[in-house]
Amino acid sequence: MNNHSDIRPPLLSALCVLTFAGSGIAFPGYFMASVFFEKFGELIVKYSSWHSLEKISPLYFTILMVLYAISLSGAVRMWKLHRDGYLLYTISQLGILFIPVLWIDWYAFSVTNAIFTAVFIIGYGINRRSLH
User: Which one of 22, 35, 64, 80 has the largest count of C-beta atoms within 10 Å of its C-beta?
Assistant: First the structure.
């Protein structure tokens, strides 16, 4: 007898939809930032607390773009009730959280991003029993 239901729990559906939205927006944003780095660099300096771009490069944005693509694919896998999606999502989100710290420094750590990452990883973790 199969202990796993093929019915997606509402919380899992909500988390996936939110991940589709977040990663679905971030992926093309980081793609554009990596391809049009100089133009985006001007905007970053103009509208953020950064005064120069010496610590970041197109590769930085490309790495984040790839991590968001993996996050999105993990959410798609969980939407289809595949357990490996949780691992893909978790690893990519931890990468998204810590790549800025490793690349730039600890002042690049986002507490807000850390809170959202923890909430989503825990939320998805609660639903792991529904995944097979």
Answer: 64
Mean pLDDT on 66-92? 98
Neighbours of 53 (CB within 10 A): 15
The pTM for the full model equals 0.91
What's the confidence (pLDDT) of residue 17? Answer: 98
Distance CA 13, CA 124 (A): 10
Amino acid making up residue 90: T
* Three-class SS state of 108: helix
* Cα 57–chain centre separation: 19
In 3D space, the residue among 100, 92, 98, 115 whose CA is nearest the CA of residue 48 turns out to be 100
DSSP string, 37-103: HHHHHHHHHHHSS----TT--HHHHHHHHHHHHHHHHHHHHHHTT-THHHHHHHHHHHHHHHHHHHH
Phi, psi of 51 (to 5 degrees): -105, -15
